[in-house]
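Section 5: illustrative case.
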């Protein structure tokens, strides 16, 4: 078995499989780290949502300022007026197992525009515009902007007017007044209250320190790494048992035939070998 495994072709394949397995193991570690981060972030959001402690938004994040990681899930307050005419809907957002829309409205403050997810509605028709004539004070959890969808030149989202597929700051910058913060707030409370407010979007839930979705991806990558090495072992074992010898013989015969047919390699009759 060892002599078979030391054949050049199996050694070359082993190197390839080890490289592939190493890459898969690294991807598994990355997914595990993401599972920890998501779990901690969800737990932090739950605690912040329950907490009575709030801080002014402009003490955490100024307009056009780079979003800092430690600002995620900070419970902030801000006051201003709603930019009702610029309200947008973000489709494919779930609440209690149902798919609907986030209602995304700009809050116009003295420091700039603040994107606010005011809530969730099941249908686009249910999204009413807030009163833009009075000043409101809001509290909510601060979140970083979502990554924009990468599209090919000329490609569009295909969504109806008034809808966007991500709460992406770069996309909102082209639609709303500037300056604007580089994140968004998920609304918790509003004063004075809005009688027609959409359903509140709850913070993500956590049942532990790990996000099970990312953890399952990590396990899959590690399983692929093991399968790659088992696949190599299976090929070597079959070769050792002679299960691959037929193909090898056929290949050898083909090589001999090609050598005989090639005039450059054929030895002339009567000419002694050197």
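Designed sequence:
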């Amino acid at each position: 078995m060892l002599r078979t495994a030391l054949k050049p072709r199996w050694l070359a394949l082993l190197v390839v499989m080890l490289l592939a397995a190493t890459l898969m193991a690294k991807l598994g570690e990355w997914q595990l780290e993401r599972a920890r981060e998501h779990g901690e972030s969800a737990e932090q959001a739950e605690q912040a949502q329950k907490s009575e402690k709030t801080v002014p938004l402009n003490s955490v994040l100024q307009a056009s300022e780079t979003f800092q990681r430690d600002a995620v899930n900070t419970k902030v307050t801000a006051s201003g007026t709603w930019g009702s005419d610029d309200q947008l809907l973000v489709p494919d957002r779930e609440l209690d197992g149902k798919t609907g829309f986030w209602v995304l409205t700009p809050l116009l403050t003295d420091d700039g525009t603040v994107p606010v997810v005011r809530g969730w509605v099941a249908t686009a028709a249910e999204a009413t515009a807030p009163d833009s004539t009075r000043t409101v004070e809001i509290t909510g959890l601060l979140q970083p902007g979502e990554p924009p969808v990468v599209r090919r030149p000329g490609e569009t989202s295909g969504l109806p007017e008034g809808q966007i597929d991500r709460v992406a700051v770069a996309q909102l910058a082209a639609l709303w007044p500037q300056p604007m913060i580089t994140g968004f707030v998920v609304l918790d409370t509003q004063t004075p209250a809005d009688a027609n407010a959409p359903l509140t979007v709850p913070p993500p839930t956590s049942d532990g320190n790990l996000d099970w979705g990312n953890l399952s991806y990590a396990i899959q990558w590690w399983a692929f790494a093991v399968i790659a090495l088992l696949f190599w072992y299976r090929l070597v074992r079959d070769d050792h048992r002679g299960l691959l010898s037929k193909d090898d013989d056929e290949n050898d015969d083909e090589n001999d035939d090609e050598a005989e047919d090639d005039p450059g390699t054929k030895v002339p009759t009567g000419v002694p070998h050197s």
